[in-house]
Write a sequence for this structure.
């Protein structure tokens, strides 16, 4: 198993660093456009989700009303299998509709983070999400308060078939689900906990003055994150070095701020791990998807076992590119001169 994993990881590593990107010979003409200049055919058609912001606002109101309905389920989950199914149907209907609302707000927001109306939309859906989480926070503790035999008997009911995974995961995480009061407090922290990620997105996308660089053909390019992601594939090594040095120099200038945001995110994850009684942050991070920590450590072992193959490939890349020393800026460009993908 370990050997197969090592080979798989090596192949994945090769695929990641050797995908060729086609660039026309001559002057580089690609530019990163202002969002307002992008053709409609390249934009998300958010009207597939909601016809307008007004329709979205109506959707938010509808979800908030359903949340009020969910309150009526408190204290009734153990009445019957049918009642439990009714309350879980309402819960996941709320979750489904909230996901649609979030998808709309997120896409509108990420088209242009500088638009205050878009920021307000995204901030609002974050607060709605916290409200929804808090409104549902009592359900897991109440479910676990039922006698295991009774819950197992309910589980045989056909009306609960669609919720078998939810019930399994809830009972599986019994040791890490707290009282209703503590679960509500954890849920209320959701919007605050998302702060570091939101700040990073705004800083790295909007506020950092990304540099311009002049390539060997005389073209001017902007090295924001999108531009960097494209330009690191350039066939000219001097151009790649220019791109890498300018981009990472700007990141370095904000390293204390980015480091502070990273530490805040780590502390947030640690808070959730401690609040739920996990042995460590890794166990907390993986338990939500029922992944044992052994699998994580085995994957690292597999990757390390495959490193000799990756190193052989990097030696081959160095020879094909004809460089004395392979740099970070040499890892993305194609080693094939041209290819019709």
């Amino acid at each position: 198993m370990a050997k197969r994993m090592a080979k798989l990881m090596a192949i994945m590593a090769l695929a990641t660093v050797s995908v060729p990107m086609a660039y026309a010979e001559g002057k580089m003409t690609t530019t990163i456009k202002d969002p307002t200049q992008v053709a409609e055919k390249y934009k998300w058609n958010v009207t597939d989700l909601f016809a307008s912001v007004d329709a979205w606002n109506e959707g938010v109101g509808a979800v908030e009303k359903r949340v009020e309905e969910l309150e009526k389920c408190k204290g009734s989950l153990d009445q019957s299998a049918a009642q439990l199914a009714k309350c879980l149907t309402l819960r996941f209907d709320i979750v489904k509709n909230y996901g649609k609302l979030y998808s709309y707000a997120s896409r509108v927001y990420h088209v242009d983070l500088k638009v205050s109306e878009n920021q307000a939309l995204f901030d609002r859906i974050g607060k709605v999400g916290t409200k929804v989480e808090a409104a549902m926070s009592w359900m897991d503790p109440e479910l676990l308060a039922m006698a295991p035999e009774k819950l197992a008997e309910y589980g045989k009911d056909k009306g609960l078939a669609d919720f078998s995974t939810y019930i399994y995961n809830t009972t599986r995480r019994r040791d890490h689900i707290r009282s209703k009061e503590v679960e509500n407090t954890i849920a209320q922290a959701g919007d605050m906990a998302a702060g570091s990620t939101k700040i990073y997105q705004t800083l790295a996308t909007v506020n950092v003055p990304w540099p311009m660089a002049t390539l060997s053909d005389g073209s001017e390019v902007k090295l924001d994150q999108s531009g960097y992601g494209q330009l690191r594939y350039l066939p000219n090594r001097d151009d790649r070095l220019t791109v890498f040095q300018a981009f990472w120099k700007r990141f370095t200038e904000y390293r204390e701020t980015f480091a502070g945001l990273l530490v805040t995110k780590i502390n947030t994850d640690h808070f959730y791990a401690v609040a739920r009684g996990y042995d460590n942050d890794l166990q907390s991070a993986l338990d939500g998807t029922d992944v044992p920590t052994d699998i994580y450590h085995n994957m690292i072992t597999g990757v390390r076992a495959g490193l000799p193959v990756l190193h052989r490939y990097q030696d081959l890349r160095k020879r094909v590119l004809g460089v004395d020393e392979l740099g970070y800026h040499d890892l993305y460009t194609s080693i094939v001169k041209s290819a019709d993908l």
About this structure: The longest helix spans residues 81-111. Confidence is low (pLDDT under 50) at residues 1-29. The two ends are 33 Å apart (CA to CA).
